[in-house]
Design a protein that fits this description.
Number of domains: 3
Oligomer: single chain
CATH topology of the largest domain: Rossmann fold
Bound molecules: hypoxanthine
Helix content: 25-40%
Radius of gyration: 26 Å
Number of helices: 12
Order of helices and strands: HHHHEHEHEHEEHEHEHEHEEHEEE
Number of strands: 13
Length: 370
């Protein structure tokens, strides 16, 4: 493999000039830069990133530790993180913690050993000593989606409270009064926050969330199926199940079908997190949608800010409700104030409910500490 010395010889310049030319240094003339680039092309030279890291003490690499790479929400998050990082000149190494604190620690340790420039984490738990030490040692870090309280680490997340309130309003309008939730693990902020948001929204409608109507899940499909089976075995089963993530919603759908029952006629279903195949399930699933791609991009920008010595702020973006058919027919869109006259003498067509209705687009980014 060609070395930097070979490139210098081929271009007729010094090794230092090759280095400066490749790093875009302004002191290199356009002619010298062109000769260097031609030599790089001819010899197939690849710069040695390890040598450069040793020189600059930077690897231009970010670590991303996510809780479950098989969950489509985190898959989309990882995609947007990689895209934004690439746009800013960084590579990403992903560690999948699989909801296990020991694996999370393994990835954090490995990434720190590899001298990543900064770390994005969606924590699986309340934070291990290793993670807390890394923060205290000044490792640039940003929490995304989930977070650990009490640390000077920016948090990039969405706030689902308004969308959950809208969901409960929608369910109430459809006549549902017995509403249950399949919760995520209480060790996670997202596990706790979604139950609280649901409880608060129910209270606004004078509804309670009895203990029997809280299923303990682990953000995986099997737990959604088991919780739903238990709900269906109650003397007074709920009319609606709200699954706190997309995988548990799929498990709930399975449980209803396995009993020969139907959604929404026998049990209505809603999910936190919209995923592409909720449009294709039968029925399409009503969901609280997070701006997942934007969260990933904002998290990378906050981390790169921290790495490059800028403050790097917390960002909270609103989620929104997407109404489909899994809770009953969505309300028809409001009639225009001055309805247009019918087009002609033929019989007017029957009004049709939209396949999907969404709340207005999110309000502007709010920057705040959670
Ligand atoms: N777990 C599972 N799904 C999710 C989460 C989470 O913490 N956040 C957003 N979607």
């Amino acid at each position: 493999m060609a070395s930097i010395k070979d490139v210098a010889a081929e271009a007729g310049v010094s090794v230092a000039t090759v280095s400066r030319a490749l790093n875009g240094h302004p002191s290199v003339s356009a002619a010298a830069r062109a000769r260097v680039l031609a030599a790089v092309e001819t010899l197939g030279y690849r710069p040695n990133a390890v040598a450069r890291s040793l020189r600059t003490d930077q690897t231009r690499t970010l670590g991303l530790v996510i809780s479950d790479v098989m969950n489509p929400y985190f898959t989309e998050l990882a995609r947007s993180v990689e895209e934004e990082a690439r746009a800013l000149g960084y590579s990403v190494i992903i560690g999948n913690a699989d909801e296990r604190p020991d694996l999370q620690d393994h990835h954090v340790r490995t990434l720190l050993d590899r001298r990543i420039d900064g770390l994005l984490v969606s924590p699986t738990d309340g934070g291990s000593p290793l993670m807390l030490d890394a923060v205290r040692a000044g490792t640039p870090m940003v929490f995304v989606d989930r977070w650990i309280a009490g640390l000077d680490v920016p948090v990039v997340r969405s706030d689902g409270r308004a969308a959950v309130r809208e969901l409960v309003a929608h369910l109430h309008r459809l006549g549902h009064r017995r509403l249950a939730i399949i919760a995520g693990p209480a060790a996670t902020t997202t596990g706790r926050e979604r139950v609280t948001a649901f409880q608060e929204a129910l209270a606004e409608y004078g509804l309670r969330l009895p203990d029997d109507y809280i299923g303990q899940g682990d953000f995986q499909a099997t737990s959604g199926r088991r919780a739903t089976e238990r709900f269906l075995d109650l003397d007074e089963p709920p009319e609606v199940v709200f699954a706190a993530d997309n995988l548990m919603a799929l498990g709930a759908l399975d449980a209803v079908r396995a009993r020969g029952l139907r959604v929404p006629e026998d049990l209505a279903l809603a999910a936190f997190d919209d995923i592409p195949w909720f449009v294709h399930t039968d029925p399409p699933v009503t969901a609280v949608a997070q701006p997942t791609g934007e969260l990933g991009r904002a998290a990378v920008r906050a981390l790169v800010d921290r790495i490059e010595g800028r403050p790097g702020e917390s960002v909270t973006l609103p989620a929104r409700l997407v109404v489909r058919r899994s809770c009953g027919e969505p309300a028809a869109p409001p009639a225009p104030a001055n309805p247009p006259a019918p087009a002609g003498p033929s019989t007017p067509s029957a009004p049709t409910a939209p396949a999907e209705t969404a709340a207005p687009s999110p309000s502007p980014v709010r920057r705040s500490k959670p």
